[in-house]
UniProtKB/TrEMBL annotation:
Keywords: Coiled coil
Pfam family, one: Dpy-30
Residues forming coiled coils: 47-77, 122-149
Organism the protein comes from: Streblomastix strix
Domain of life: Eukaryota
Record protein name field: Uncharacterized protein
Gene3D superfamilies the UniProt entry points to: cAMP-dependent protein kinase regulatory subunit, dimerization-anchoring domain
């Protein structure tokens, strides 16, 4: 049991007590027991202050890590948000392109319909021109026929006139 007690004392106060005794031999105070007592009290205060500083440093490091995680999450969120924005913009652009393509298709269909309408009007016009030419030709033929009749009548009348007035 004495070995356990000495082990405990070595671990608990051995190093600190050795430092206190070394300091007593160096400074040789007038009251070495009071000096050792104050040394030990100062050691306890320093140890507590060091533990508090260490705890504060660990807390600061933990907060820094949390802040870095938050910043990392914010960066990830910003990246995701940017990706979402890019996808939305891409979708809007695709919609606009599709809309313009549809407009162009509608315009082409409309133009095609206009072309068909124009072609129909042209074909109607061509038909009208063809009819006009046929009508004109028919009029000319009728006029020529009238002229032939007139000429024939004139000729017949002239022949009659000649026969009546001049005896052949």
């Amino acid at each position: 049991m004495a070995d356990l007690d000495s082990e405990y004392l070595k671990e608990a106060v051995g190093e600190t007590l050795a430092e206190a005794l070394a300091s007593v031999t160096i400074y040789q105070p007038s009251d070495p027991i009071e000096y050792v007592g104050r040394f030990l009290l100062q050691h306890v205060r320093n140890k507590r202050r060091h533990e508090k500083e260490k705890a504060l440093e660990e807390e600061a490091n933990r907060r820094i890590e949390e802040a870095e995680k938050v910043n990392s999450h914010k960066k990830e969120a910003a990246a995701v948000e940017q990706q979402v924005r890019h996808k939305k913009i891409k979708a809007e652009v695709e919609k606009k392109v599709e809309f313009r393509a549809n407009l162009l298709a509608i315009y082409k269909i409309h133009e095609s319909e206009k072309d068909e309408e124009i072609a129909k009007k042209l074909s109607d016009s061509e038909e009208a021109v063809r009819r006009y030419h046929e009508e004109l030709k028919a009029r000319q033929e009728r006029a020529e026929e009238r002229e032939r009749r007139k000429y024939s009548q004139f000729r017949l009348g002239y022949i009659d006139y000649l026969q009546q007035n001049f005896k052949f």
